[in-house]
Design brief:
By secondary structure, this protein is of the alpha+beta class. It is built from 6 helices and 7 strands. The strands form 3 sheets. Strands 4-3-7 form a 3-stranded antiparallel sheet. A two-stranded antiparallel sheet has the order 1-2.
Length: 205
Amino acid sequence: MKTESCCLLLVLGTTLLFAGLATAQHPAARPISSKEVKCLVCKATMNEMELAVGKVDPKRKIDVGDYRLDATGDSKKKKTILFAKSEMYLTELMESVCDRMDDYAKARYKKNGRPVVLKMMTEFGMNPEMSEVDFVQEGDLNKTLKHLCLEIVEDHEESILKMFQQEDEVKDTDVRLCSEVANICNEQPIEDDYEYEGEDDRDEL
């Protein structure tokens, strides 16, 4: 993972070196406000959580309970649940998810200046959207992304845990946590018939 991150930083550094003179004064390369960055990091964190949970074998289960035995030697409170919804798995995931922020960089879309924290590598290779953005050149080398992620997870650990342990399909956690619970973003609350509108030119985060 560290090797991939170093390679990504090298690629980003090279890109900025050759494109810096051409884009330094471009409006799309202007700094992103701390509030916007925190919102984007929150969304990216929850999306990474959903992605990881979605990759867990849906047939994998685990026994949970207090394991105190009754007179017959059985645990009355013991039950079987999906591994992906277990506190053990989700806690471990929350402890490691922020490491994935090393794969992201702050940028703005060239066509409209919309801010984004872009994942530079996907499971299929280099993110094709890299050609559509101007990276925001800041001295922290995007280290603040991981720090913000750690802060968000630590402050809202219980809420995140409950969202992913719900019986229904886990979805829209980025809006539920970042807007409704943490009030980091300004999106509309989730409605029962809520549907994503997809990518557009809105400036609202």
